[in-house]
Amino acid sequence: MNDDASDITIDNENHIVVVGTTYGPLFGANPRYSGYYYLMKLNKDTGALLYGVQFGDDTHWSIAKAVAIDSENNAYISGQTYSDMYGDTKSGGPYFVSKHSASNGKLIWGVSNAKTPVSVSTASTIKVNSKNEIIIGGYTTDSLFAQMTTMQDVFIAKMDTTNGSITWGVQYSLNTQDFLYGMTLCDENNIFVTGSTVTTKENYFVYKLSDVDGSKLWNVTYGSSDSDYGRDIAFSKADEALYVSGYTESSLYAEKVGIDDLFNVKLSPKDGSILGSVQHGCNKCEIMTMGSDVDSAGRLVTTGYVNGALYADVQPGFVTTSFFINKYSIKSN
Prior knowledge:
Elements: E1 3-10, E2 16-22, E3 36-42, E4 49-55, E5 62-69, E6 75-81, E7 95-100, E8 107-113, E9 121-128, E10 133-140, E11 153-160, E12 166-172, E13 177-185, E14 190-198, E15 202-210, E16 216-222, E17 228-236, E18 241-248, E19 261-267, E20 274-280, E21 286-294, E22 300-307, E23 321-328
Antiparallel strand pairs: 1-2, 2-3, 3-4, 5-6, 6-7, 7-8, 9-10, 10-11, 11-12, 13-14, 14-15, 15-16, 17-18, 18-19, 19-20, 21-22, 22-23
């Protein structure tokens, strides 16, 4: 059986919380024809399992994408489901959000959101702000919060931690098809998101949104004539800067080395202007950045996976997929 881990976070007691999707009896019943999403907590010192739970049904997929923790260590999971366990799917695949007990992972509530029949939505990122409000972001083919005018829009919504009700929701599009992958909360007033927008190629974008109602304060799009993918975004209090991490098929910020290169770009939170950047890769490598964060000194940490020899030798004739962890100190220009 296959089990996937999609996100990880640390709770207020420094225990490790992981979510993902299982196709077997990881923490419960064996899904016959589908995948269940799971939640597990591990001891901070030993890695021992404190609890593990899974949710879904035997005939419909449920996929966890992200997890966040509130001030009481309750867990919130976002993703996509084809199950009606949290509401009517309208024969599509709506996004879902669920709340789980800090002590044992037991389900407190779960909600899904579908407006148009046979539409698909994914809540790819979730955060809990300092006021214990939930912020989710993702992409959709549904008219969730505005009338669809393209193939796929991005959406952001604020939700109540008490019952999952929506405080506000907004939906935006730049081009034919947009994907939202990463989100960071700058302070109590601003939300920043990143992802990719598609015409003939993909370019990455950044939105700055008001926490009050989700209104757009500014947006920028960067890229080349090839594809450039924004995957995550982080805010550094140390140097008051945004950091977008992704990968590119072009010489976006330096001469391209591999099939894909990594890039990390430092932006001003005031207007999205570029303050600094790095790009690197390895010969004939395919690389994908998956996540990022910044430490208290403003140093960027990223992770993802690579097919090829980024930092280690690969035997001739073998295609090896491995993960990487990088740390950067990106100076302003």
